[in-house]
Write a structure and sequence with these properties.
Length: about 450
């Protein structure tokens, strides 16, 4: 039986098909095996850390962000009241788990995220739709990564007027559901790679028949025309200097305009037309003028006031990123930013995919719990739900199989009671903390 606990023979088979019980009904075991097989990571040798266990370890690292990797291994592999996956309860060393994560790579995690995305689209498509279109938001963010030579070369150090930054940064672009906050697709790249470049790579990954809400940073014709050619619609805030030729008035502050496409853009992409027909909507929000461009040109079906209110849903992705950075990754503040653990760039990507996987799995449980109690999923507290899931994961790992359905049902009821108080909130763009006055620490290049 090797290193598997001698007192519980069935742990031998559990190790090769390991899963975190609270998520096992969502992240199907066959998906895990298919992802490992497709990437050639199943492995035939008898190791202390099998490929399935290592994959779930990455997800566990995304769920238990406040724990060290060794403590995550201990929590997953040493089951109170049942036994240990390792002889004498001695978990693998940190060197062993580093080797195991290096062997696994990030390919299986990326493939598993795609399988989960397809299942989410199949299961919750109606709940994520608006007037027959998937309502999605595209936006980017950055993650600070450990300061190692490899991470510096792979991701780069951002510059500023105060000098070089303290940590390398990884740029990320996410496609999120505006109604349920699932992160359906993510792209990761060096910091100096522009978001619009990643957005062009994102077009083939956008589900068919989508309405994508964008901020004005994505107001580039190569991208917007690419969305339309892919069968998608867009709603984007217009830049102040973007002006077109009015063709028809559709209503108050609502008209069709012909927008010229600059010659420089057409030289980069000869397939672009010289002009683009868009609908321009003008509105005043809290006394400030705003303009929006959209490809939804039917004023009877898509009223201008309706689209202006719909644009506010763009903030849902900001809230999703806040849930990851502030709540899923605790203790994240201006002076203590989110820093992924790994000093190898490939393990950084692996950890990032695991973080998104864990976030989506939590969101699935929140959505199912909200359906049971008849409330909107966005009215459920992410932080409260996360704490209940962490507690249930430990309890379900140590419980007999016959009790798991009852514990899982109680978990959903408990999450359903985590309803946020309804209040009007304002999110002004202001800084809450000034820059530090401490002297700058100089680092070798």
């Amino acid at each position: 039986m090797g290193f598997i606990g001698h007192s519980i023979p069935k742990l031998e088979s559990w190790f090769e098909s390991f899963s975190i019980e609270v998520f096992a009904s969502i992240l199907k075991p066959e998906w895990v095996q298919e992802a490992l097989a497709a990437c050639g990571r199943r492995g035939e040798r008898d190791r202390k850390l099998s490929a399935p266990f290592t994959l779930w370890l990455i997800v566990g690292m995304g769920l238990y962000r406040s724990l060290s990797i060794q403590n995550v291994i201990h929590r997953l592999g040493n089951l109170p009241g049942i036994g240990s996956l390792w002889e004498n309860g001695e978990a693998p060393t940190s060197a062993s788990d580093t080797e195991a994560r290096t062997r696994l790579g990030f390919g299986p995690l990326r493939m598993l995220l795609e399988k989960l995305r397809d299942w989410i689209l199949l299961t919750y498509r109606e709940a994520m739709s608006w007037k027959g279109m998937l309502l999605l938001v595209l936006d980017g963010t950055t993650f600070k990564v450990p300061d190692s030579d490899e991470n510096r070369r792979r991701f780069g150090l951002p510059g500023s007027h105060r000098g070089r930054t303290a940590f390398p940064q990884m740029r990320a672009l996410f496609l999120a559901s505006a109604k349920l906050r699932f992160l359906l697709t993510g792209l990761f790249a060096p910091f100096h790679r522009a978001e619009i470049y990643l957005a062009l790579r994102m077009i083939p990954r956008i589900p068919s028949g989508s309405l994508v809400i964008l901020d004005r940073n994505f107001n580039a014709w190569q991208f917007l025309v690419g969305l339309r050619r892919g069968g998608h619609h867009f709603l984007v805030r217009a830049r102040d200097k973007m002006r077109g030729v009015p063709l028809a008035v559709l209503g108050a502050g609502d008209r069709l305009v012909e927008m010229p496409i600059r010659r420089e853009a057409r030289l980069k992409d000869p397939s672009l037309p010289k002009t683009a027909l868009v609908r321009e909507i003008s509105a005043r929000i809290q006394g400030q003028p705003f303009r929006f461009f959209t490809s939804l040109q039917d004023p009877a079906r898509f009223r201008a006031s309706e689209l202006v209110l719909l644009y506010a849903q763009r903030w849902q992705e900001e809230l999703a990123l806040d849930e990851i950075k502030t709540h899923q990754c605790p203790y994240s503040t201006v002076n203590r930013p989110v820093i992924l653990r790994c000093k190898s760039s490939r393990r950084v990507l692996q950890e990032a995919y695991g973080l998104v996987l864990a976030y989506n799995l939590v969101r699935v449980l929140m959505t199912d719990a909200a359906r049971q109690v008849g409330v909107e999923a966005l009215h459920i507290s992410f932080l409260d739900s996360l704490e209940r899931i962490r507690s249930a994961a430990l309890l379900m790992a140590a419980s007999p199989t016959c009790l798991l359905p009852a514990i899982f049902g109680d978990l959903l009821k408990s999450i359903g009671r985590c309803v946020l108080p309804r209040r009007r909130r304002s999110n002004p763009r202001v800084v809450c903390m000034k820059m530090s006055s401490y002297r700058l620490k100089r680092k070798a290049a």
